[in-house]
Amino acid sequence: MILRTLTLMPDGVEIALPKGSALTDIELETSEPLIPFGCRSGACGACVVEVIDGSDALGEIDPEEIDFLEDLGWADGSHRLACQCRLLDSATVRVVEN
């Protein structure tokens, strides 16, 4: 199994996940709720993260995700829905407080 590292800021917590995992799969690796989530389908907005480093490592963003992020006020291109990202390589994100 190929692992990739997801780093969560501001604390610098590093979690190893299998390549291709959704970012919300960190719940399987830790007992702490590091990324909040609700629906897992990109419809609730609970899991918005700011991508600090490695945006290419999170897979392509879907047009519906772009539209939903814009509706939430995150139209700057540096935010993603963690449940819609797939960790293809190492990345660093910061959970957005809603």
TrEMBL record:
Domain 2Fe-2S ferredoxin-type, chain residue ranges per copy: 4-98
InterPro entries found in the cross-reference section: 2Fe-2S_ferredoxin-like_sf (IPR036010), 2Fe-2S_ferredoxin-type (IPR001041), 2Fe2S_fd_BS (IPR006058), Beta-grasp_dom_sf (IPR012675)
CDD domains found in the cross-reference section: fer2 (cd00207)
SUPFAM superfamilies from the UniProt entry: 2Fe-2S ferredoxin-like
Origin superkingdom: Bacteria
Protein name stated in the entry: 2Fe-2S iron-sulfur cluster-binding protein
Lineage of source species: Bacteria, Bacillati, Actinomycetota, Actinomycetes, Kitasatosporales
